[in-house]
Amino acid sequence: MKSILVTIALGASLMVSAQQKTPAYLDVTKPIEERVENALSLMTTEEKVALCHAQSKFSSKGVPRLGIPEVWTDDGPHGIREEVFWDEWDGAHWTNDSCTAFPALTCLAATFNPHLSLLYGKSIGEEARYRNKTVLLGPGVNIYRTPLNGRNFEYMGEDPYLSSRMVVPYIQGVQSIGVAACVKHFALNNQEEWRGHINVNVSDRALYEIYLPAFKAAVQEGKAWSIMGSYNQFRGEHCCHNDLLLNKILKQDWKFDGVVISDWGGTHNTDQAVKNDLDIEMGTYTNGLTTQGKFSYSSYYLADSFLKGIKDGKYDMALLNDKARRILRLVFRTTMSENRPFGRFVSPEHSEAGRKIAEEGIVLLKNDKQFFPLTGKYNKIAIIGENATRSLVIGGGSSSLKVSYEVSPLAGLTAAYGKDHVVYSMGYASGPSMYGREMKSKLNADSLVAAAVEVAKNADVVLFIGGLNKNHFQDCEGGDRKSLDLPFGQDKLIDALVKANKNTAVVLLSGNAVAMPWVDKVPAIMQGWYLGSEAGNALANVISGKVNPSGKLPFSFPKKLEDNAAHSFGKLSYPGDSINELYKEDILVGYRWFDTKNIASLFPFGYGLSYTSFAYSKPTADKAEVTQDGTIKVSFTLTNNGKVDGAETAQLYVSKPKSTVTRASKELKAFQKVFLKAGESQTVTMEVLVSSFAFYDEAQHGWNVEKGAYQLLVGCSSRDIKGKIDVKVQ
Ligand code: BGC
After folding, report:
1. Active site includes 263?
2. For the whole model, what pTM was predicted?
3. Residue 24 CA, ligand 1 centroid: distance in Å
C-alpha cells in the first residue's frame, strides 16, 4: 500500500514538473509575442539563420529540435499549385493535389464586389490549409500599367483604390483559415520584360499615389502576414532587399510586422539582404528558374555567409533576431496557432464560390439589339475558337494549376443548349503552352478558317470564343506580349466569320486588353477573363440569361497601343533601355491618362453593360463645404428600369479642376455594387473621407489636401458621368 502511494506521489510530482517545464512557446494560450520571445531565447544562432533561407523549392526550415514546423509556401493566387519535387519545378505526380481553380484576379476585380473577394480568400485559404500550406503566394496587386504585361491576369487592374478595396478581404479570408497571405510583387514589377534586373525610376508622387496604395492597404487593413519582394530594381537596388521599400516604407512607416519573402531568385547580395530587411530567401540559383544549375542551400545569400557575418561581428545579432522573430510570429499565427481550422479541398462550396465570382466578373462590352442573352430560340449555335475547348488553367507560369476538373465553354454551352443544337469548329490553333518559349501549332491555319466558315454559314448564330491564352508571349509569366493584337490569326478569322454569318458575337477569354479592329462589325462582345474550374458553367449561365452580367472593367481597353500612357513616351518609358526604365506618364496611369488627355478608349475603366438598364437620379451631398479632415456623403436614387433583375456598380470619382500640381481629371474614391429587382429603386449613399482627395506632396514628403473647389462625379464608368456635385474644402 505504502509503495503504491509513493508511486502515485512520484507520478504526480513528475506530472507537475513536466507541466512546469512546458515552455511558453508551446502554450497556445499565451500571447504570440511571448511565445516568439521564448522560442527565440531557446534557439542557437545556427537555428535562427536556418529559418532565413529555403531548404527546398517551396519550403524553409523550422526548428526540428524544438518542434517548430517548417514553412511551406505554395502558389497562388488562383488555386493551390501541385506538389513539386524537392528541388525542382517539375510536378511530383502526387495523386491527391488536383485543386479547384478559381477565376483569375482580373475577374475578381471586375466583380467590384468585396464580399466576393472575402469568399475567394476563404475558399482558397481552405484549399491551402487542407494541403498543409503555411503561406499562400498571393494575391498580386501590381498596377496594370501596360496591356503588354504578361502577368496582368494575376493582378487587380489599373486603379489603386479598386485594388485596395479588393485585396483587403482576400487577405482577411485567407488568413481567417490560419494560412498566411503573401502579397506580391512589392513593388513596381509592372512588366515581365527584363524583370530580373530592370531599374525602375518613378516619381515619389506616382509611387505613393499609384503603385503603393494597394500594398499599404494589404498591410495596414488586411494585416497581411507576409509580402513578396519583386524581381526588378527600384532606384538602383533590387526590390527584394531595397532599403527605401522594405526598411523605410514597409517596416518603419507602415509598421509591417510580418515576413518579407524574396521572389524566387530575386536575392542578389548578402549585405543588402541582411540589412535591408529581407527575411526569407527563396529560389536562389537552384535548377529551374535560372540557368545556373545546382546551388546548395547553404550557399544562399542568407545562409553560410550570413552566419559567418554574425559570428565575425560584421552583422549585429539584432538583425538576425528581427528576421527570426518575424518568421516565428508567422509560424505561431499559422501552423502553431490555437484555432487553426482544418480546411477542405475541392468541395462543392468552392466550385460554387468560383462560379459565382466568374459570373459576376464577366463583362458585357457590347450588345446591339439585345443579341445576348441567347434565350434558346436558335436551332444551331456554332461555337468557334480554340478557347472554347482549351485548358486555360494550365500555363501562365507560377500560377499554372493541376485541377480536379475544368468545365470548358463548349461543355458548359452544350449542357445549356443541348448537344443537338451546338456545333464546334476550332477556327485557329495556338500550339502547346510552354514556359519561356513559344511553340507554334503545326495545324494548317487556312484549313481551320475554311472549316470554321463552313460551320458558321449553316448556323443561326455564331459564338466566337477566343482571346489570349497562357502561352509564352501571351498572358504568361516570364515574357510580355509583343503587341495589342489578338494572336493566332483571330482578327482575320473573325472577319471571315462575320462575312459568313452576320449573327457572330465575340467572347474573349484573356487577362489583358486586346485591339478589336472588328468592333463595329459584330453585334455583341463579352469579356470573359480566365474563369477557372467553373468557366463553362459561368459563361453558359450569363450567355443564356440565367445570370445577368454585372462585371465592370478593372482597366481601360485602348484603341491602339500608343494611346496607352506608358507607350506614348517611347522605349525608355516601356520597356526601358534594358537597364533603366522611367515611368514618364507619372501619375497618369490607365483612365487617369485617357480622361485627362481626352483620348477615347475602346472601352473605359469601370464600364460594363447589363441585360437591364439603370437610371441615376441627380446626386446630392450632405454638405457643400467641408474641412480637410471631414467626410462627405453623396446620395442618389438608383433605379432598375429594365425588365430583369440585375446589379449595377455605381462609382464616385473626385476631380480638382484647379490645382497647384498636375491632377488626373478624375480619380475613383468609392464604389458600390447594388442589386435591384426589375423596377426596384434604392437610395445609394457613398461616404468619402476628404483626406482621400490628397495628392502626395513631394516637397513635404507627405499627403496634402488642397483647399478649394472640387467636383464629385457619380457615374457608371469613368467616361459615363451621370451627375456632378460641387464641394468646397476649407
Ligand atoms: C513568381 C512568383 C511565384 C514564385 C514561386 C516566381 O517566379 O514571380 O510570383 O510565387 O515564382 O513559384
Report:
1. yes
2. 0.96
3. 35
